[in-house]
Amino acid sequence: MMVTMHGTGSNTAPWVARKWKSIRATSAFQGLVSGGGSWNDDELVSIERMGRYIEGTWSPEEGESGPVLAGDASWAHLIGQVGVVALRAASPVTLPERREVLLNFLEMWAQTPFVDPDYRFRLGRLEGEGSFTVRDEHGSAFARWLPARKDRPYLEALPPGCVRPPHHELRYAEECHRGWGSRDQLRRLVSLIRERGPMPWDPAAVVELSDAAGTSRPAAALILAGNPGAGSYYAPYLEAAERTALGFKAAELESGRAELGLLREGERMALLADVLPEDPADLWEPGGLGRVAARTAEAWNTRYGRRPRPPERTWKAALALDTRVPATDLCHLFLDPERAPLPPGSLLRARPCPEEYRGLRTIWDAMGLPDATGLVDAVFTGLPWAYADLPAGDPVRDGAPEVVRMLRKVLAGGDSPARALEAGVRETSALEAGVPEGRTVSWRWDWLTDGTCDRMMARITAADLPPGRYESDPRACVPDLVEEVAQTLGLLEDPAALYLQLLTLAVPSDRNVRRWNGWTPARHKQAAARLVERGLVVEDKRPRAGRGVFLPGPWAHAAKPLPPMECGKARRLGARLADGSEDRKVMHLPGLPGTLPELFTEAWRSPREAENPGG
User: Which listed site, 154, 179, 581, 595, has its alpha carbon 20 to 30 Å from 355?
Assistant: First the structure.
C-alpha cells in the first residue's frame, strides 16, 4: 500500500524522515550519481515523491509546484538498472553506514512505478532553458534546467497505453532499459541482507572476472563490489576498511579506479544492470559471486570486447610508471598493438566530438588528436620501459617492436592526424628540454629517428636474452663486461654486476635490483657490502632513492616523478640538472639514450667516469 504524503518539509512521511534524517547519500552513491556532493536525504525524498506523483497518489498543495528532477537527474539512469545499487548494498566491502543508506533507497525504490513493468520511461535532453513538471492524459514529463552545465535533462513516464507527443524542444530521447530489479527481487534482497548480513566475498571470483575480461585484479574487485570506477568525492580512494576487505593496496586500487574512471555513470549502471541472480539468495550460496563474475565478464566483453590480460608482475611494473594512461591500458596497447582498442569509456569516443573524430576505434586512430597527448606520452614512456624493465619472453615486451611499427605507420600517413602527431612528437617545451626560450626540440623525435629506438627493438627481436632474464641485469646482456669488471677490480661476479648497475641505471633501487637479478635480500646485501669494503660505493640514506649504497661524488635531488641520482650518471643519461647554492636537482630526464649493453659499456670505460664515478 502506498503512503500518501502532502506538501513538503515537515509533512514528509514518518518512515522517510526516520530512515533518512541526517543521512547524506553522497558517499553511498558515489560514481553512480553525480552532482558534486549535493546528494542527501532531500534528493531521495524528492525521488520518492516523484514516483507517487507519477502514479497519481500525491499532488502538490495549492500554490506548490510538482516534484522536480532531483539533483542533476543522473539518478534517472537507475530506472531499469538498479542492479548496480543492489550489488553494492550486498557487497561485504561496503561500509555499514553506506549499506544502510542503500538498503533504505532500495526499499523506497521497490514502492515506486520505476520498477513497474507496465510503465515505460524515456530519458533525453531538451534544447533551450527552463524547468517544468507536467502530468496529464499522456502521462508525466519532467525537465530541469542546469545553468552550470547549460543542460536540460528530460524524463517521460508513460502509463500503460499512453503515448506522449514529442516535445517541440526535444534533442533526443531513448527508452530506459528494463533489467534486474523487480519489486519482489528488491524486497527479497533487502530482507536477505538484513537477515544474513552481506554476501560472502570470493577472491577467486575477482580472478575469474579479471582473466575473462582482461581487466586488472583491482579493477575486477571494484566492479564486483558494485564500485566500477566510482567518482572521486574523497581521497584517498576508498577507506582503509574497504581496501582491506578488497585485499589491495591504495595505489593498486587507485590504478583500478583510473582504469574504470572514464566510464560514465550510465555506463557503470548498464554494465551491472543484469548480473545479479534471478533469486538473490544465490549470492549466499557457494560460488554465488563467481556466477556474478561470469555474467559480468559477458556483459563487459559484449560492450567493450575481450582484451588480453597482462601477467600480474608486468601489470605491477607498469603501475610504477608515471603516465596518464592506466597500467592496464598501457599493457593492452603492447599486447595487441595493431588492434589497440581505445580504453573503455575513453573521452575520445564517449563525448560529443567533431565529425572527423567520429568512428574512432583504435588508439592509432586517435593519436593525432589534441586529446591524445597522454597516449603519445605513454607510448614513449612505455617503449624503453618494456625493453629495459620487463623480462625476455614477456608478452608486453615482445609487443614493443610492433608498437614502433604502428607508430611509424601512423606518422607516414601524410594526413592531418599524421601531421598533428608528428608535430606533437617533435616538439618539447623549452623548459622541459633545458634549452634557451624560443627553441623547441624533442628527445622523443631524436630517439625515434636517430637509430636508438631501432637498436633497442632489435635487442628484443634478436631474443639474445634467456627467457625470464632482464636486459637491466648486465650478467644477462653483457656477461663479458661483467667478467672484465670483476677481474679489473678483484671482485666476484655479483658485486661486479651490482657496480655496473649503480654506474648506469637511473633507478637501481633495492627492489628493482633484486627483481632484475633474481637475488634474495641476503645475496644483494652481500654484494653491496663487498663494494663498500673496496671503497667503490658509500653507505647513506637519501630521500626517494630506495637503496643504501651510492657512488661517491655529488648527488642530484629530484621531485616526483623524476628519480634522484648521482650527478655524473645523470649527465650521461642526458638529464638536465639545475645547480642550486647548496644542491643540484634533476629537472628533466629523457628516455634511454642507448641500449643497455651500450650504456653499461660506456659507464665502465669512460675515462672521466673511471677517474670520478660519481660525477
Answer: 154
